[in-house]
Amino acid sequence: MRVFVTGGTGLIGSAVVAELLGAGHTVLALARSDASAQAASAAGGEPIRGALADLDALRAGAAQADGVIHLAFANDFSSPEALANAVAEESAALATLGQELVGSDRPFVTCSGTPAVQGRASTEADPIPTEGPVGGRGRAVTGVLELASQGVRSSAVRLPRTVHHDGAGGFAGVLTGIARRSGVSGYPGDGTQRWPAVHALDAAVLFRLALEHAEAGTAWHAVDDEGDQVRDIAAVIGRRLDLPVEPVPVETYGPLGVIFAADQPSSSAHTRQALGWEPKHPRLLEDLENIQA
């Protein structure tokens, strides 16, 4: 397939592009800067210049492709307003891509987060939240899945709280960044809350499988670690950076504080059985050993 990818030069996107090319697909990559365009070309893709807010570029990319994988997100969690703007930008992009694909039976794979379900690990059958700090993302992804009734083979790969590679990425990477700045490897609450995780190279395989095989309107879980306790994550970060490990106020994490404090394990049993997905790369606590002081 000729696949249009947004966010193709990020931590996850670069792994997805490599996975697609390795499987014999060709890639059109949205590139918002000269550096991104050069990175896409160096990886073996064909860049299409434009940012996520450039709806004409999104239409052009989708029109040239046999399928679309959406990964781009502003990832600005500095304030509730910044997060809301990022969600609104992505929502407009998803609506634009979806409308370009209506009636084509082409695959459209988007991403979301795994939901939190009180008292147990969430599964692929659980709905993603449509309220709260990132509820707008949930509504947008739900809209993508509903395109299944309009001739789009839409699916969603739900990513866990940390998608990691060489010790970087995801919410664990946010903890590492705050630890470097503050001098404390902190965690909210008592630290017993659990976060699921997956290696970026394993997640990339699932995006390819969803593109190739997922039925319309389905959701999948890219989860390897069902749930690592946050205090264990912070302990590895603290040891690697030679910093004290201790609880910190939930307000430390701004608009993400409520999410960071929640227990949110997740299962991928159905995904593994139905799509034959089997993670092979290091799990989170092992991969965090790659953090450089």
**Whole-number radius of gyration?**
18 Å
What is the CATH C-level name of the largest domain? Alpha Beta
Mean pLDDT: 95
Looking across the biggest beta sheet, what order are the strands in? 3-2-1-4-5-6-10
Oligomer: single chain
CATH topology of the largest domain: Rossmann fold
* Distance between the first and last residues' Cα: 42 Å
What is the succession of H and E elements?
A: EHEHEHEHEHEEHEEHEEHEHHH
Beta-strand percentage range = 15-25%
Structure summary, number of beta strands: 12
Helix count, DSSP H or I runs of 4 or more residues: 11
> At the fourth CATH level, what is the homologous superfamily of the largest domain?
NAD(P)-binding Rossmann-like Domain
Organism: Amycolatopsis azurea DSM 43854
Region (Disordered): 116-137
InterPro entries: Epimerase_deHydtase, NAD(P)-bd_dom_sf, NAD(P)-dependent_oxidoreduct
Domain NAD-dependent epimerase/dehydratase: 3-218
